């Protein structure tokens, strides 16, 4: 099982993005990737062709209209299963561009691997030769956080938990996107902003469970940080002291 990692956002989101290339305008910053399968495929093989067909299908036909899509291409050992999810506030155009770019980057970061996942700020794309649909992904997960802290971590952590717990219930209770954003006043001039989202191939009960676990991990990795997120294969949560949705 892959270990969870906590990564400081010391360079800032824009700098992180520019470390990859200038596609951040339509993908959001590059967050990370995992080549989780040790199995490999040969170039120009049926698996390679099916993977390319799946990526094209996800980016052009399936994902952009709704922000989520999954599918399988091929049969037997050549079958490829994959899905893509865009953040709930991302436009159709940026969703399509992000999924397209993410698919290209998976080829670059995980060449010839039969299973991999990649995250950008606007979307994630995942594929595998194993049918993973409907199962919570517990292995592919990491944390990002702002290197700056707050003056009262204990009180601040409680407010973070309060907001994200509310958003977990709202997201898992929704019938469409399994997505929620919100804010909470924590002082005269300070507002805490949050986001919670799940992959739409899991149930609402599993979504709530996944989000609650993600929230519970934040104090362990990111206690008192001014901003942090748990980025996962099945769900993600994020909080900041500035508005970040739709930016």
TrEMBL record:
Location of the Gnk2-homologous domain: 29-132, 138-244
Organism domain of life: Eukaryota
GO cellular component annotations of the record: extracellular region
Localisation: Secreted
Signal peptide interval: 1-25
UniProt keyword annotation of Signal present: yes
Main localization of the protein described in the UniProt heading: secreted
UniProt-listed Pfam families: Stress-antifung
Keywords, alphabetical: Glycoprotein, Repeat, Secreted, Signal
Classification via CDD domains: Gnk2-like (cd23509)
PANTHER family: CYSTEINE-RICH REPEAT SECRETORY PROTEIN 38, CYSTEINE-RICH REPEAT SECRETORY PROTEIN 38-RELATED
Family, similarity comment: Belongs to the cysteine-rich repeat secretory protein family.
Protein name per the record: Cysteine-rich repeat secretory protein
Organism: Quillaja saponaria
